[in-house]
Specification:
Elements lengths: L2 E6 L28 H7 L10 E5 L1 H10 L8 E3 L6 H15 L4 E6 L2 E3 L2 H15 L4 E6 L10 E7 L9 E7 L4 H10 L2 E11 H11 L1 H12 L5 H9 L7 H6 L5 E6 L4 E3 L2
Parallel strand pairs: 1-2, 1-4, 2-3, 6-10
Antiparallel strand pairs: 4-9, 5-11, 6-9, 7-8, 7-9, 8-10
Helix pairs in contact: 3-6, 3-7, 6-7, 7-8
Length: about 270
């Protein structure tokens, strides 16, 4: 099986200040029960992926603490980002390194500061999303809205995907920025919009092709990073990183991409604690 998870854990965690500081960001704090959010993000994958197929992208000052909290993830699965440059660069770096390791890889991109109660449904959705991703779709997990939230972006579903999947999958009609109260109420009433969870599943090959089209500068940097000697990799990353434009994967890639799909999920018990 060539499915991997990439946990994005580089956030500074300033919103929970003073509880959460740069060197003790929110995902490394025990907020819900005994476990930290980072630990529960890894634990949630138990029974779906072995630790050697879980990668973590983070910044150097947090990696040491993460290794203490989750010693089962191999050291070489930590990818160090010199400075936060938005989610597009995180995804690109992980995809490029992972694709070099396994050219058939499918990656699930997971933020480290989410909480999900229903683990079985989560595993089922990841499996279904990977099936869709293998048909060259960029797949996003949507969350069926339970109230008119102005804090999340929304995804409008288009037509059902052809192909007879076991779970309802739709093409994405459009991504919508965080709405005002009135718009949020309209979107909820329409019933064809999901919250954008920030969880994505795709073939590494497919996302790297899309980056070549839409973010050529990032793509060129990534090609040089993976071409470098692995022992020199951190130095090479450092040399490119600070000049990269800060960009989210949503804005940099998803809004303009072709073949984007959404699986709307209700009942996950999801919350974006971050």
């Amino acid at each position: 099986n060539s499915t991997y998870a990439v946990i994005m854990a580089g956030g500074g965690g300033t919103r929970l200040w003073p509880l959460s500081r740069k060197n003790r960001p929110k995902q490394l704090l025990p907020l819900i029960g005994e476990q930290t959010l980072f630990q529960s993000t890894v634990a949630r994958l138990e029974g779906y992926l072995p630790p050697e197929r879980i990668l973590v992208v983070t910044v150097a000052e947090q990696a040491a603490e993460m290794r203490v909290q989750v010693p089962e993830i191999p050291e070489e699965n930590y990818i160090i980002e010199p400075a936060p440059r938005g989610t597009a660069s995180v995804v690109g770096l992980a995809a490029a390194i992972l694709h070099q390791r396994d050219s058939h890889s499918v990656m699930a991109v997971l933020p480290s500061d989410h909480f999900i109660r229903n683990r079985d449904l989560f595993h089922y959705l990841l499996k279904e999303a990977a099936e869709v991703a293998r048909q060259d779709y960029l797949v996003t997990l949507g969350i069926t809205p339970t109230f008119p939230s102005t804090g999340y972006g929304y995804i409008q579903q288009g037509t059902p995907l052809p192909g007879g999947y076991n779970y309802p999958c739709y093409s994405v009609a459009r991504f919508i920025e965080k709405p005002d109260e009135q718009t949020a109420q309209q979107l909820l009433r329409r019933g064809d919009h999901s919250w954008n969870s920030g969880m994505f599943i795709w073939k590494t090959e497919r996302i790297l092709d899309e980056m070549r089209l839409q973010m050529p500068e990032l793509s060129a940097a990534l090609e040089q990073i993976v071409a470098a000697d692995p022992l020199q990799r951190e130095v090479v990353i450092e040399s490119f990183w600070h000049d990269l434009k800060v960009e989210t994967i949503d804005y940099g890639i998803m809004e303009k991409a072709e073949r984007v799909a959404v699986l709307p999920a209700g009942g996950l018990g999801w919350s974006d604690v971050g």
